[in-house]
Recover the amino acids of this structure.
C-alpha cells in the first residue's frame, strides 16, 4: 500500500507527538532495552572473537525431511537470519550461472547506454554497482518456482507467528513471486559497497499509524520484553512511500542463492544478526536528543541507514557471512541490518540471484496484479526503475516456461 506525504518533516513531528502521547515512557523503555541489546552485542562479539558460528545454518536435505527444530527456530528468531546449505545441487547452479552470462550477452547488457542507478540507494552507493536489472531470465524463473525453493520457504515461513486468534496473517505454504535482480561482482571491484541499512521503508516506520505503529505496539506500550519481530500481525498492513527499489510486498525474508563460492573478503554480505535491532532504532529516534522533525537522519524514499552517530552500538555487531558454496541460500528478516563489503578482494566472481520469501496475503496478491503484466511484456519488475532491458528479448522466459506452481506464485491462472 502506498503512502503519499507532502511535508515529511511535519509528518514526522506530528507522528512523534502522537507516539509519545500514547507511549508509557519511551525514555525508560529505551534505557531498559538498551541494556538487553548491549548484552546481545557483547555475545556476538565474543563468539566472533572465538571463531564460533553466529548465523544459524541448516542443511536442505535435513530441512526437507525433518523441518526446523525448536532449538533452530529459537536461534533464527534471535539472530533474524539463516543459511540453508545445498538448497540446490552445485551442477544445477553452475549451469544457471553460465546461462545468465549468455543471457546478458544476448541482451547486449554491457553496451546498453544510460543505465540508471536506483535513487533509493543514493546515500549508500560508493560507485557504479554490479547489479544487473534483469528479472525474466530462464534460470531466475526456474530457481524461483523450484520445489527446493518452495520447501525451503515453507519451513522458514513457519518460524513466524503467522496465526493468532483464529486469524491467519499469511499462507506459509504459498509464495507470491517477487521478481528481483542478479548480482555479478568481479574480483577487484570497489564500487558496490553498501553501507549497513534496512530495506522496506524508512520514515514510514514512525509515520504509519495503522501499520508500523501496530507492528511496534509492544515497544510503544513499554513492553519491550515481549516485542517479537517474527510476529506477523499488522506486517502486511504497512504503507510505504513509493520509490524505485522500495519493496511494496510483505517479505518474511530477504535472500539470495549463491551462484559461486563466496565469503568474507569476497565483496559479499554483511549482517547485524539481531532481529530486534530495528525495534531499538525505532525507540532511539523518540529520545530527547533527536530533533522533533527528525528520526535519526532517515530520509523518505531511501533505505533506512544504520547511522554510526545514532546507532553505533548496533554496528559493533556487524559481521560478514561465513563462506558459502554455489547452491547455498542466505536468508535474513526484513528488519535485519545488512550491507555489502566495500571491496571484492577475492579471486573469483561473487554472483547471486536475489530471491526472497513473500508468502501469500492480500498485500502480496495485489502486487502480483501489477507484476504479471510486466512479466508478460518483458518490462522491468514494477518495484524497480523502468529500464526494460528485456523488452524485445526472445530469450527471456514466458508463460510457457512456468510450471503449475510457478503460475500460482506469479498469480497467473
Amino acid at each position: 500500500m502506498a503512502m503519499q506525504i507532502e511535508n515529511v518533516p511535519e509528518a514526522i513531528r506530528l507522528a512523534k507527538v502522537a507516539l509519545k502521547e500514547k507511549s508509557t515512557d519511551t525514555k525508560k523503555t529505551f534505557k531498559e532495552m538498551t541494556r538487553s541489546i548491549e548484552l546481545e552485542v557483547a555475545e556476538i562479539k565474543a563468539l566472533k572473537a572465538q571463531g564460533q558460528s553466529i548465523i544459524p545454518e541448516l542443511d536442505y536435505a535435513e530441512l526437507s525431511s525433518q523441518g526446523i527444530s525448536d532449538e533452530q527456530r529459537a536461534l533464527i528468531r534471535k539472530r533474524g537470519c539463516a543459511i540453508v546449505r545445498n538448497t540446490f545441487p552445485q551442477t544445477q547452479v553452475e549451469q544457471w550461472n553460465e546461462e545468465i552470462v549468455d543471457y546478458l550477452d544476448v541482451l547486449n547488457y554491457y553496451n546498453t547506454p544510460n543505465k540508471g542507478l536506483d535513487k533509493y540507494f543514493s546515500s549508500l552507493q560508493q560507485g557504479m554497482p554490479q547489479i544487473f536489472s534483469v528479472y525474466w531470465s530462464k534460470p531466475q524463473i526456474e530457481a524461483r518456482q523450484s520445489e527446493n525453493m518452495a520447501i525451503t520457504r515453507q519451513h522458514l515461513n513457519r518460524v513466524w507467528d503467522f496465526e493468532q486468534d483464529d486469524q491467519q496473517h499469511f499462507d506459509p505454504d504459498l509464495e507470491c513471486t517477487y521478481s528481483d535482480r542478479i548480482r555479478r561482482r568481479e574480483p577487484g571491484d570497489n564500487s558496490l559497497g553498501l553501507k549497513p541499512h534496512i530495506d522496506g521503508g524508512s520514515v514510514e516506520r514512525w509515520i504509519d499509524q495503522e501499520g508500523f505503529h501496530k507492528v511496534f505496539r509492544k515497544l510503544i506500550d513499554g513492553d519491550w520484553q515481549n516485542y517479537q519481530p517474527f510476529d506477523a500481525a499488522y506486517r502486511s498492513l504497512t504503507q510505504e512511500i513509493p520509490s524505485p527499489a522500495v519493496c511494496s510486498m510483505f517479505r518474511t525474508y530477504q535472500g539470495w542463492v549463491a551462484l559461486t563460492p563466496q565469503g568474507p573478503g569476497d565483496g559479499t554480505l554483511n549482517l547485524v544478526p539481531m532481529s530486534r535491532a530495528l525495534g531499538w532504532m525505532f525507540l532511539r529516534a523518540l529520545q530527547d536528543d533527536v530533533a522533533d522533525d527528525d528520526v535519526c537522519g532517515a530520509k523518505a524514499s531511501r533505505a533506512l541507514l544504520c547511522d554510526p552517530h545514532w546507532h553505533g552500538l548496533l554496528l559493533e555487531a556487524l559481521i560478514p557471512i561465513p563462506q558459502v558454496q554455489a547452491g547455498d541460500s542466505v536468508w535474513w528478516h526484513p528488519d535485519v541490518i545488512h550491507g555489502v563489503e566495500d571491496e571484492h578482494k577475492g579471486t573469483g566472481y561473487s554472483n547471486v540471484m536475489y530471491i526472497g520469501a513473500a508468502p501469500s496475503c492480500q498485500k502480496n496478491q495485489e502486487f502480483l496484479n501489477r507484476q504479471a503484466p510486466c512479466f508478460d511484456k518483458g518490462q522491468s519488475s514494477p518495484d524497480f526503475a523502468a529500464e526494460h532491458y528485456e523488452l524485445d528479448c526472445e530469450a527471456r522466459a514466458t508463460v510457457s516456461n512456468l510450471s503449475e506452481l510457478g503460475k500460482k506464485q506469479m498469480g497467473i491462472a
In short: The longest helix spans residues 26-49. Residues 189 and 344 are 5 Å apart (CA to CA). Confidence is low (pLDDT under 50) at residues 124-129.
